[in-house]
Model the fold of this input.
Amino acid sequence: MLKRLVDEDEINALAEIEGATSTRLRAEDHGLESLHANEFVYGVPHSHFINAAFAYSRPRSMNRFNGDGRGAWYAALDVQTCINEVAFHMSNFLSMTGEYQAVVEYAEMFSSMAGEFLDLRSASDHPSLHPDGEIGYRAGNLLADAALAKGLNGIIYPSVRHPGGTCLAALRPHAIQSVAPGDVYRITWSGIPDPVILKV
Done:
């Protein structure tokens, strides 16, 4: 699509600008503080999506199983669980602005997972699954560090935002295999915390 709008020289200039400002590209070349460059994946379909999940994390903040120095690939066994999870977090973000007005499109990505995962499905009372992020995320990051230290590739756990759903957090890029795109979902907030969700 971009090639219809600009010529080859302009594409090269844009690629150079992206290379200078892209956290993902810098991480692939030089690594991150807590993720070496050789841990990223190269030469496989959609590797840029996989690597971006690990290169970008929430600055000065945590997710359930990763801190601000190392991302993770979060997934679920069904799309409704994914939608509930991302909608919850976007609604939470909008609540901090005081205005529930946004339209966001999320692309579904299918993948396989390789290697051994810590299984929390029979431990729904584990502190890392507490719905309050101040409690759950701290416990989850400690658990993820322990899982990495034991050589595990990730964590499988009951969804906190979709009862009955199952989530996975891949903690290493090479754990994610056979990535393929799926549908696109548009989530719209129009003044209230509960969004309208449509498949595009």
